[in-house]
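I am still getting used to backbone structure tokens and would like to learn alongside you. To get us started, please write out a protein record for me. Start from the sequence, derive the backbone structure tokens from it, and show both lines together. Once you have written the record down, we can walk along the chain together:
***
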Amino acid sequence: MFKKILIANRGEIALRVIRTCKEMGIKTVAVYSTADKESLHVKFADEAVCIGPPASKQSYLNIPQIMAAAEITNADGIHPGYGFLAENANFAEVCADYGIKFIGPTAEMIRLMGDKITAKTTMKKAGVPVIPGSDGLIVDIAEGKTISKEIGYPVILKATAGGGGKGMRVVWKEEDFENNWNSARQEAGAAFGNDGIYIEKFIEEPRHIEIQVAGDQFGNVCHMSERDCSIQRRHQKLVEESPSPFVDPELRQRMGEAARKAVQSINYESVGTIEFLVDKYKNFYFMEMNTRIQVEHTVTEEVIDFDLIKEQIKIAAGIPISGKDHYPKAYAMECRINAEDPYKDFRPNPGKITELHTAKGHGVRVDTHVYAGYTVPPYYDSMIAKIIVRAATREDVINKMSRALDEFIVVGIKTTIPFHVKLMKDEQFRAGNFTTKFLESFEL
């Protein structure tokens, strides 16, 4: 087992890792930028090393500084948290070169699943469902129509150099193909200087549902059931829950088996997440794999009563996992509390927190690194806390979350709490009737 772990991250996830390390009897090292010197992760670690100025490139993304901190403190493991260097294959390689264990998968695994085309090909070979589509760019209208007919309408035309919805068109029937093809190419060429187009099956009323997985050095794998992350804004998750109100036992079984295949196909070592898009007909398709711990890992921890950070550390230390799949024993939901003004298009709102009262009570967990008197810096992600609640039913979870949000008071900055308060009262949300498009028509 490790004697000392350096946490190459900041904020609530750094503090989260520190807590588990302390429970395991492992010494901890915090690294911090000058902007984070008053953060709780710095205060609660056994040692702390300043690694640079506020800019991430000069601090939390500065591999030489982080490795120097690990060397001078004699750390034998580095936990990357999420974000920053968590899925950086070069960083994992540097750790190996220095003889310090990267608490996560190997650089090869990170690269394999980090490239979306390679990952999709790998999953297809493993028998994991992927979104049907063209193998590459479409040459002309005739080829496009042939492929669209094979995979079935509706389809979506996507610019290969796309982003921000440019060069993207949904085609519902063959007679509309040519007009959409021409307009998509024209828009893509004007926006990116590249009018290349490929085709995918259009997923109707999609849900974003992910499966927590784990694998060890001995070939043992398991899944830990699903999280529904469909409540998102501009592809940023705001609420996560488990079990999903959309997933029935049969679908859970099929998705769990697909996730196991995915992990086994690459001999994955560590905890991770297989992300799927699920259509209204309960067909599911591989989207991507996150080769790290995720923000919403806490939801899974609550429904299966399991410490995922502890499991991650044990796997890195060469301890085998049980290989047993886990299923929800309760219901749980997480709301991300961001330093943003939801009344002004969720504009970031950093600044000093003058008063803070966090939610408490049975079945309520708050993961945060902030406190009264703490100044939220403008340089990093705006999330300042996560409220996670657990109860026997989904209705009880929503009612408990509503109560917890009411007593979560932050003075001095704007937060997303008003958004969450209204969401918990929304009839469609409470009924479980939502997709990834839900917030496009949600009014605060």
Remarks:
- The longest helix spans residues 249-265.
- The CA atoms of residues 272 and 292 lie 5 Å apart.
- The longest strand covers residues 221-233.
- The mean pLDDT is 96.
